[in-house]
Amino acid sequence: MANFNGVQAALIAANTESAAVWSGGKVRSITDTIVYAAQASGSTLTMGYPIPSGALIQGIWLNTDTSTSTTTLAFGTAASAALFAAAAAYTTINTWVPVAKASSALAVLTAQTQLIITTAVGALPASGNLIVTIEYTLD
After folding, report:
1. Which of 48, 57, 76, 109 would bridge 81 by S-S if both were Cys, CB 3.0 to 4.6 A apart?
2. What angle do CA 12, 18, 19 make, to 5 degrees?
3. How many C-beta neighbours within 10 Å does residue 47 have?
4. In the β-sheet with 129-138, what is the strand arrangement from edge to edge?
5. How far is residue 78's CA from residue 86's CA, in Å, rounded to a whole number?
């Protein structure tokens, strides 16, 4: 049977050192909460501190105590609203849900990046909480 290497294993096999963010970097996180207040469709929600240049996104998770119903949330930046995750409704409550798409975890950020959530389709609930955690590797 054939053997296949992961991207980092192939670099190691070729005696090429991978960047620290891929192997051995420090995992850090940013967590922020949005209090629902019937924010209108098209609103932007700025989350936490900016993610530093050179970071590699490991994942983005959310936990909501109130369903967004048909209202969708896209996770991205001011320049690209769905850079990290396409717009989707989140109806699972009180459970951590991964939201980052795989392609967002494939590139090291080349500039400081502010996570922005963009709402669409309808207003957010009138009350409740949305918690978002971003994990990234740096150093």
Report:
1. 76
2. 170
3. 24
4. 26-35, 129-138, 56-64, 97-98
5. 14
Q: Which amino acid is at 138?
A: L
Q: What is the pLDDT of residues 88-115, one digit of tens each?
A: 999 999 999 999 877 776 678 899 999 9
- CA dihedral (45, 48, 51, 56) positive or negative: negative
What fold, for 25-138?
Answer: Jelly Rolls (2.60.120)
Q: Which two tokens stand for residue 97?
A: 């849900």
The pair of structure tokens assigned to 3 is 């053997």
- Residues 118, 81 contacting (CB under 8 angstroms): yes
Two tokens, residue 12: 């190691």
Residue 77's pLDDT band (cuts 50, 70, 90): very high
